[in-house]
């Protein structure tokens, strides 16, 4: 006696019915929207490395060598995160790193406001010191950052949603399962054991893919710093 072939391992999403479908499609939409935000934020900084560094310098928090490293490398990190989120690859890693960057911007904005600095955050543009008499849009920037952090927290919890490489990585081609013919209890035990093993394998593949993506992002940031520094020589 043979059991039916095992299906793919359980999906990233949980639950059943309309509520689960809503979570899955909301996660998909949030993932793509945040990817678009990263592209929007990265493009002006990639085009104007000096302006990107000036935006970081305006916070008056870092030494000059770190100002340049952050200013030159951050847009490449943002572009890499945008690609990961668009593809749905290492989604939770990309969402977590995005949250760390945005939370850092939020802390910087709060610090600038507390010290009476009149600057633009520079998350969605090159930022920098504002003209004399122009009020700093701190409230708008803090609300924006907090909204993005809430969206990213949801994405970390919910996973990648649909149309994502993460889902493909977690799957494997199912095969026939040999099972005991003695009774239904033995059959159920065998199927459960194999499903647990599939889950472990899927988790391992996800962790390996995230580790590779993290290494690629680090390399991209280092290369970006070198490219932008060379452009300004």
Give an account of the 3D structure.
The chain has 233 residues and is mainly alpha-helical. The longest helix has 48 residues, at 184-231. It has helices at residues 17-47, 49-57, 64-87, 91-114, 138-158, 165-170, 184-231, and strands at residues 2-3, 119-120, 128-129, 177-178. The protein is elongated, with a radius of gyration of 23 Å. Residues 1-16 and 173-182 have low confidence and may be disordered. The chain contains seven helices and four strands, in the order βααααββααβα.
Low-confidence stretches: 1-16, 173-182
H/E element order? EHHHHEEHHEH
Helix content: 55-70%
Number of H/I helices: 7
How far do the termini sit from each other?
A: 73 Å
Major β-sheet strand ordering: 1-4
What is the average per-residue confidence, as pLDDT, rounded to a whole number? 85
Architecture blueprint of SSEs:
Elements: E1 2-3, H1 17-47, H2 49-57, H3 64-87, H4 91-114, E2 119-120, E3 128-129, H5 138-158, H6 165-170, E4 177-178, H7 184-231
Antiparallel strand pairs: 1-4, 2-3
Helix pairs in contact: 1-2, 1-3, 1-5, 2-3, 3-4, 3-7, 4-5
Keywords:
4 strands; two-stranded antiparallel ribbon; mainly alpha; disordered N terminus; 233 residues; 7 helices
Question: What would a concise description of this structure say?
Answer:
Helix content is 70%, strand content 3%.
């Amino acid at each position: 006696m043979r059991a039916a072939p095992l299906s793919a391992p359980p999906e990233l999403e949980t639950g059943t019915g309309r509520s689960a479908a809503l979570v899955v499609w909301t996660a998909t939409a949030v993932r793509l929207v945040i990817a678009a935000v990263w592209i929007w934020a990265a493009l002006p900084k990639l085009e104007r490395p000096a302006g990107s560094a000036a935006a970081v310098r305006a916070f008056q928090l870092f030494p000059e060598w770190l100002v340049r490293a952050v200013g030159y490398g951050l847009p490449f990190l943002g572009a890499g995160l945008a690609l990961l989120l668009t593809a749905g690859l290492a989604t939770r890693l990309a969402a977590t790193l995005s949250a760390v960057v945005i939370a850092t911007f939020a802390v910087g904005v709060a610090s600038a406001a507390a010290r009476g600095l009149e600057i633009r955050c520079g998350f969605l543009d090159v930022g920098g010191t504002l003209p004399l008499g122009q009020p700093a849009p701190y409230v708008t920037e803090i609300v924006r950052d907090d909204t993005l952090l809430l969206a990213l927290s949801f994405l970390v919890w919910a996973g990648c949603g649909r149309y994502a490489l993460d889902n493909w990585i977690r799957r494997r081609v199912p095969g026939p399962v040999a099972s005991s013919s003695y009774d239904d209890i033995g059959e159920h035990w065998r199927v459960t054991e194999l499903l647990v093993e599939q889950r472990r394998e899927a988790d391992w593949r996800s962790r390996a893919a995230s580790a590779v993506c993290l290494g690629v992002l680090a390399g991209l940031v280092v290369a970006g710093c070198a490219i932008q520094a060379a452009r300004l020589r």
